[in-house]
Amino acid sequence: MSTAPDEVIRVLLADDQALIRAGFAALIGSTTDLRVVAEAGNGREAVTAAREHRPDVVLMDLRMPELDGLQATREITSDPDLDGVRILVLTTFEADDQVLAALRAGAAGFMGKDVGPTRLLDGIRTVAGGDALLSPRATRGLIARYLATPMTAARDLDDSALQSLTDREREVVALVGRGMSNEQIAADLVLSPLTVKTHVNRAMAKVGARDRAQLVVLAYQTGLVRAGQD
């Protein structure tokens, strides 16, 4: 059964290597629920294409000419007209500090360029659905390590807003920071997944977080979650 038009996830490919874009485009084109709506060879083109096409997800390389992927991420996520656009960063892990800066700027997650086809497609779907690709323990450790390093953030979250959270919301944010899904949090706290989703959405609204990725960063920034915590 084909996917209804309003269910198709629209993707923008931003990478300075045409061969990589072609490979991603072919992979995405093999699905029924994903579609490439535009391509960009540098960060400036990515920002322009995002404003023109309003994709659901931007597959963003960090190292690009004219305007790098980090700055492009900042410009896209800071544009109120592009509030529904999610950024999925593709990178080599040598640039971990830039990855965290991208998360702070509003990116919904990141994956290595050596990721397998199935994981990449699932990652796009995950980000489009509003979740963050921050679940693996290694990733949480990475975030904790770099949060301990001073870094200029393009869009700092309001740490003091944690005071406005209820005890339950604070508890849920801590579990989000540990990489748990709504279903896992629901089982841990003996709540329904819908109730957990409501707590997550209210917490994001109160602290000014764009998505779950920024909630994870905030959880580490404020000490709700600490490095090495299971």
What is the string of helix and strand elements? EHEHEHEHEHHHHHH
Tally the helices: what do you get?
10
Largest sheet: 5 strands, parallel
Over the alpha carbons, how many angstroms does the gyration radius reach?
17 Å
Poorly predicted residue ranges: 1-5, 150-156
What's the overall average pLDDT, rounded? 81
Proportion in β-strands: 5-15%
Look at the structure and name the CATH superfamily of the largest domain. Response regulator
Query: How many structurally independent domains?
Result: 2
Ordered list of secondary-structure elements with their pairings:
Blueprint: E1 9-14, H1 18-29, E2 34-40, H2 43-53, E3 57-61, H3 69-77, E4 86-91, H4 96-105, E5 109-112, H5 117-128, H6 137-147, H7 167-177, H8 182-189, H9 193-207, H10 212-221
Parallel strand pairs: 1-2, 1-3, 3-4, 4-5
Helix pairs in contact: 2-3, 3-4, 7-9, 7-10, 8-9
What's the short version?
The chain contains ten helices and five strands; from the N terminus they run βαβαβαβαβαααααα.
